[in-house]
Amino acid sequence: MLTLENFTKNWEKKFPALNIKNTHFIIAVSGGVDSIVLAHVLYALKANCTIAHVNFQLRGAESDRDEQFVTDFAKKFNFPLQLHRVDTLKYAVLYKMGIQEAAREIRYAWFESLLKKEDVLITAHHADDQIETVLMQLFRGTGLHGLTGIPHRRNDVLNLARPLLPFTKEQIKAYASENELEFVEDSSNSKDDYTRNLIRNKIIPQIQTVYPNVNENIFYTAEKLKEAEAIVEATVAAFWKKGFKTKKGIRTLPISYWNKVKGNATYTWGLIQPFGFKPAQIVEVHKLLEATNGAYIGTPTHRFIKFKEEIQIVSNDTSKEHLVIYVGEGILQIKNGSLHFEMLEANQIKKVDPSSNIAYLDAAKMDWPILYRTWQSTDYFYPLGLPKKKKLNHFLGNLKLSPAIKEQVAIISVGDKIAWVVGHRIDDRFKITPQTQKVVKITYQDKS
What we know:
Layout: H1 4-14, E1 24-28, H2 33-44, E2 48-55, H3 61-76, E3 81-85, H4 88-94, H5 99-114, E4 120-122, H6 127-140, H7 144-147, E5 153-155, E6 159-161, H8 169-178, H9 195-208, H10 214-243, E7 245-247, E8 250-254, H11 255-258, H12 265-272, H13 282-288, E9 296-298, E10 302-307, E11 310-315, E12 322-325, E13 330-334, E14 337-345, E15 358-362, E16 370-374, E17 380-381, E18 390-391, H14 392-398, H15 403-407, E19 410-414, E20 417-421, E21 425-426, E22 438-446
Helix pairs in contact: 2-8, 4-5, 6-9, 6-10, 10-12, 12-13
């Protein structure tokens, strides 16, 4: 039964962080019974709301009738109103998508544009919608997440809540009748042109002849699967967190660790989903484990790169470091660690540390300020011990670095000359000699 008391109890259970009195809500109102009841409930609870209505111009005069009805409803209950008219058919043709897909994209893009920082969008999805969604997902083929149906809450691109989700269409209509609420009917809901309508009008009634409580059972199952999904997600996240390592600022995952759950789609999805991959890419990601060195698969934001016995997870952020250094002493924090500068007398140096992470440069050849920056394809230098210049790209290639680490190599330059390929080799022109009096010692410490 839908009452103000039951609605409030469900709200407190599902949305404990949302204060119904102190939040501004934007209610998506079509004019149908579901959204009209939702708006009326929030009005009765004295919530601060704005009504938003989209006229998709798909049903001719009926679409205009709906717009006028919502306008009158908003005026009657003193709701601020936002209206949006759009040629949905033209949009669908232009972007080569189905009508329903186009309407959904238009609707949510506009809602997103209305939301200010603390606003919350409220939609009137209910239990019957949930049941239809679960069946559609099941028939298409899905995993655990698909069988959980519509979430009560979203807070990603859209800050969205669905407070009517536990209530059935029958309960919503009963509330409308009891409160003498008028609403409009969408004539397209009675047609079986769309999959959802076919399931609602034909399939579920047929199933009910065998299983009279099918709606309650499906809804109950979806809610329990939500609980199971939370447990699975926590378990999977903990597994991957334990396996991650960081090398030179790059997140890596040993293939031997991944092989513990080799081929398991649930674990793989838990790993790749935060990096922008799609479920359809799971099979291709599995293939990466046995691919050749340097093979990769990517998304707009990240790449998974096979390198030797590990998978490197690399951001596609192409921003380059470019830091001007004015003094030869102190510590400089860089993206993947730090550089420690010391100015020494040459006679203080009893033994040169052979580590490639330490550079000893002739101070007399340093013209301050100097520059720390990410390397470029046009760079060249004279590697210590070699009489000829070498393209830096070729030098790094000979080191057989992974593509991810190669991208992050940086240099110290003095004017247009490279003094040090950080962490690898100094330039022969800046080496210390018997004539050197002062030395700039630079120590690179990576954050791993």
